[in-house]
Amino acid sequence: MWFLLWTRLGRRVIFWCKLFSVASIGHVFLLFMILFVYSGQKSVFTVNINRSVLKSGAPIIFMPRIAKQIATQGTVLKKKPSNKGRSTCKRAVMKKPVPKKNIKKIVKKSGLVKKKAPVKKLANKKAAPKKPIKKPVKKPVAQRKKPQKRPVKKLVKKKPVPKKPGEKIEKKVAPAKQEKIDQKDEKPTEKKMPALNATQETQVQAAAEAVESQESHPEAIYIGQQELEAIKVQYEIEHEVSKYWRPPVGLSKELSCTITVLVDWNGTAKKVTVTKTSGALMFDIAARTAVSKLNLPKSVCGKEVNVNFGQ
Amino acid sequence: MIYKNLFSRAGYQKSLKTVDACAKPLVLIPRPLGRGALSILCVLFFSCMHIWAVDVSVKAQEHDKLKIKIILVGKVNDNVQEIANIIQKDLEFSSQFQVVREESDSGIVRKKDITEYFDGDCRLGVFLSATSRNSIDWRLYDLEYAQMVKGERYKIKGRDLHGWAHNISDAIWPNLTGEKGFFSTKIVFCKKINCGNKSDYKHVYVADYDGSNERLLVSTPTINMTPRWNNDPKHPLIFYSEHTNKNVRLMVVDLKGRRKVASNFDGLNILSTFSPDGKKFAYCASRGNGSCQIYFFDGELKKLTSKGNNISPTFADNGNTIYFCSDANSKCPQIYKYDLTQRGNANYTPERILNSGFEVSTTFSTVKNMLAYSKMVKGTMQIFVYNPVDNTHKQVTFGIGNKEECSWSPCGNYLLFSVQKKSKSRLAVLNLLTKNMSFITSAVDSCYYPHWSSFYDQFPYVA
Predict the structure, then answer these.
(1) Does an H or E element contain B130, and which?
(2) Is the ipTM of this complex over 0.90?
(3) Residue B95 near residue A249 (C-beta atoms within 8 A)
(4) Minimal Cα–Cα distance from B54 to chain A, Å?
(5) pLDDT tens-digit map of B307-365
(6) d(Cα B399, Cα B393) in Å, to the nearest integer?
(7) From the list B33, B58, B176, which residue is nearest A18 (CB)?
(8) Helix, strand or coil, per DSSP, at residue A150
(9) What pLDDT digit, counting tens, does each position of B155-175 carry?
(10) Nearest chain B residue (CA) to A250
């Protein structure tokens, strides 16, 4: 019947039918992706993290959001103001470490301090580095600092911070450490900066520390928000699995099996498949028993979890 | 472009935009639009599904027993009941399983009948059924999927149900653990017999690995001591020493009780030991000169030591090394290592392993590659384990009572030894995995010199 219809239809109609069908399939596909695949947190698991790298002993630096934005500002000052959002934290911090006093000014000016910016909040998803950075390229201090002088001045002049009656004026805004680094950049305008409150201080310090630690640890591992979230979920799952993972004693320490769990919407195991057997049935059975008791976090609902059980 | 962006790390938002943005160029493609696009979308979908897999690696912090069911099917006779009891004991002996017994009057026909026995914790089941009077079926099932792992039918010959039951346990064990079952192995020991006014005799007994099913093997009216199994997998023999009026001679006996003299030199002929392949042999003999020396036999009998008293030889490294105790360089016995490849070297002196303390009764496990021995700690003999690889010594027994004459299980997970308190001596097994010690002989009997056999092809019935 369909075949007969098909042959009688005009080419133009067929074309529109095809167009309609493709569009509808595309929409169904997208809807499916939205409803079933992306329903959890946004693309947390698209990032593949080798956690053994984290255990290498190198210092781990969580890129705070505040540091990111400051760093972004730092680059913006030099280059295009329109690239604010896109410029990466990593790049910015690595290439243009901003002097501490400048950071404070920018933070104050941009009003970022008002937001809740915990130290662990991380950089832009896109900007977050996938792998540890071995040796960030260091540029001589003199070269880096020169171009930043002007924009800082301008910013301060354009929008001077209004003085409140009760506010104290501090001559030295930055702590002693920071001062040492940025002695050359000190200017009279900076001295007029009003004192920051306690939360502002901590935020600024966190941002400054992130930048500073980058300089002091060339082999540091940088972790962005996306990676951090992925690690968090991994830890959650590990914690949950390890609660129930109790194999019998006396089995070889080299035994390991991998089980793939399809998690349903309640966080329990919907389908359990032994993808790699250990060779000892009791080990596999113990692993299956552990998996069947799991109550996994919502972020992995409707998704597959590969659990590698070891002794 | 589309696919690249979909797989990119930008997340959903970006991929959505990209697909929408590229809708127009897709439409302009003239021919393979219907099927091609559909297949591409399918590929994309499944690829994306794959991206969502999370890899987690977990290591065990605690251990627990695994539940297993023994289900008796159909009409249950006494034989099946007894066999089920023995299998239960075997599985529970390891401290790895918690056995639950169930019975089913009706036969099991469908898969559903099997899955009915599955509950959340118990996923394994051993079904036992007596098909006829002298045959028994056993089947190991994964209860969740009603999948048979292994099964066999046995025809029972003879009366030794213990042997058959241990055989079934041995057949089940490798499927469960991936290791060879040791339930058919036996132990030999000497038991003190009270004879009224006369001096006490010691008879040689053979029992199952857990001390049950005890059988008298040698009941000569004398003191028998230090029985040792040979390592010939086809012909199990026991070498032991018996006191005579002239000397202490080395005897050999098979499991039917037929005895022969193995070594009858003057003085002591004791503590025989075999290499893992059963082809080399060593023992201690004094030959009437007052000091006990180690003799080695590999087709020709040779004297290995000459100074002091040397006792408790045990083979290691596939029979290329002998560990023994000697007081040649000190007042008390200490452990030495003799490299048999240096046997022709006249200047070779054995290497001393420990130079402090009182150490006796060495025994080596080829499975674990470890040496166990007894050492005096604050006046009490305790069992120690020595690892030749990292050269470490570890105490494994504690508490009161002298622990002596230790012997390894063939799997290397257990140590058998005698615990002497006052005038009584009991045999005990130490589980090295759980560190639990359990007595396997009664408190009434006095048992000495235990020795655990190695794996044998078939254990004949002890007459």
Answers:
(1) strand B124-132
(2) no
(3) yes
(4) 5
(5) 889 999 999 988 899 999 998 888 889 999 999 888 878 888 888 888 778 989 999 99
(6) 18
(7) B33
(8) helix
(9) 877 777 888 899 999 999 998
(10) B433
